[in-house]
Amino acid sequence: MKPRAILHASQLVTLAGPKRPRVGAELSALGIIEDGGMLVRDGVIVATGSSDQIARDLPNDIEVIEAHGRVVLPGFVDAHAHPVFGGTRVDEFEMRARGATYEEIAASGGGIRSTVRKTRAASEAELLAQAQKRVQWFLRSGTTTMEAKSGYGLSLEEELKILRVIRQLNETSALEFVPTFLGAHAIPEEFADAPEQYVTLVIDEMLPTVAEQGLAEYCDIFCERGYFDLADSEKILKAAQSHGLRLRMHVDQLTNSGGAFLAARIGAATADHLEQTNEAEIAALAEAGVQPVLLPASVYALGKTRYPKARAMIDAGLAVVLGTDFNPGSSPTPSIPMVLSLACTQMKMTPAEGITASTINAAYSLNRGERIGSLEAGKAGNFTVFDCADYREIAYWFGTPLVHSVYVEGECVCSAR
Ligand code: NIG
Ligand code: FE
Question: Which among 264, 265, 275, 407 counts the fewest CB atoms within 10 Å?
């Protein structure tokens, strides 16, 4: 592959900085190079600088990408997503529009369980085809790396099926996927009368097999009233750790069930959602260095109004992350730009904080901060060109497709033109 240079970005938003997740005022330091340029060779960034500096000593065989005064950002990293599932829940969407709540729909047999039925009914090839279509939506929104959770199978074979689909997505698409095992997403219908037996199945059969087959890097759990309580969560997460999996947790989404303290105590990489989390719990997460993954699109899409306390978390020194929570029930959006809009309007994060939270901080939360998440020499040439001149416009023009083109390891993988 020829070396490539991109020149004349109105802003090359590098996120250059310390080699760790960013906290406090660092969240606002985007390392912007005005009229910026960047050189990429063999998929890896060789240099960033002003366009003049980069243009000065270009190799002879260089291919130049002209940014024409557009904004260039690292590819977004979506640290929380459930992209593999059968069907949609558009019927429940309409029921909520008519006044039903997510909790009521779940209690009457809908919710996660209805997606489990459709996912089990789909073949591996069908699930892959559905997910591949959705993956294009992520690329078109400027995302180049995403987490992918299982969790709509809820039996050994069905969870393995989903994790194999995630592996195939990774092999067949330009996007990079980080696989997470979420067998403890809900108690499946057939175990409704014996939930403890399902916990045993997760611990004794699912976790060892998933780990042995190398199908996941992380283990997640839905720690929530009516799903998995603190004691079961701790048992499952400890078992996951013993198999070498790192931990993420769904915590305090609908009710406060004490999951944030558990995340801190057990050393989870992330605690996600946190809509109901209080100050003492925020302090515990800070003390333990757990990264909060905030998912405002799920609050919005459920028609709720209680967003996580992002400002208190930033003040407490937490390395905040933003994600989509892409899933068919509570957050049917692949769009980090939409999440940035919500972060600014509903959680009072600044556009700069939002961008740090959805690039470098998200990359660290997925154990990939050394390789992606910023535009610095030595990192992968994963970047997105936006059709605007100021990075703040990405959050400002909400619902507007500003992505012009997307590059992974220096190759154009998606172009709006
Ligand atoms: O993150 N909270 C649990 N999981 C999803 C919802 C999944 C679903 O409704 O299908 C979430 O919001
Ligand atoms: Fe989720």
Answer: 265
